[in-house]
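DM between two lab members

TW: hey, do you still have the Methyltransferase domain-containing protein entry open?
JB: yeah, one sec
JB: this one, 279 aa:
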Amino acid sequence: MTAINEDQKTFWNGQGGETWVSGQEEMDRFLAPFSDELMVHAAPQAGEHVLDIGCGTGETSLRAAEAVGADGAVHGVDISVPMLELAKARAAAAGLSQARFSVGDAQSDALGEPVDLVISRFGVMFFENPVTAFGNIRAHVRPGGRMVFACWQPVRENEWVHVGLGIAKKHVEFPPPPDPYAPGPFAFADIERTLGLLTEAGWRNAKASPFAAKLNQGETARDGAEGLMLRGPISRALAEASEAQKAAVLHDLTEALEAKIIDGAVRLDAAIWIVSADA
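TW: and the structure you got?
JB:
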């Protein structure tokens, strides 16, 4: 196991997974426009079998389970045990016995029986070797099946990222920028490269549709700032910051978000790609 892969598993089974679990309702609200758009494009049908890569706490898996009905099946896979435990509890509470969840690495692990549809909401950008990973996923899709996933457009198109990043960098030292194609939230932002990776992995008819929305970051500027610091892209850098540094970031970020309140909530611009391909 490489250092990058080990780092991802450690993070999502520790701080990353725990903070997501504690803020599950907030995160699902924040990402709701993208979950909606993903499901429109994926359009799971009654009776279909669906694989959800990087399913997290289960939001998209549960939506798919409702769509496929009792005659269908949904298998959610993730590397985060705490997130999967919450996903299982949510499925049980909703009476969706057709949804099951398991720990797995889509890059290399066996992913169960062949499916009709693969979906992912921001769960595929962390692959160390995307071609190998997408090849493994394709091997678990029936002939004629399809894949639809959401990935982020570049940082410059995502205010929810650069507003906090710009402020945090004034108070906290950040490491040098990583390789833009390294595993991470924006690894697939270069959409032409991403479509090329899918083609190289054996997928057909790869294409992408842009989608933009204003995300609900909370009712108050303080709520929004705290959420970005706890679960946003600056959270890992702030984990090692002093209390004085965190207080300074919170103050400045809260002040900046005051100007972003629209109709009773902090609303920040965000943009993604909806990518689809055929097996």
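TW: got it. Residues 24-42 form the longest helix (19 residues). The chain has a mean pLDDT of 93.
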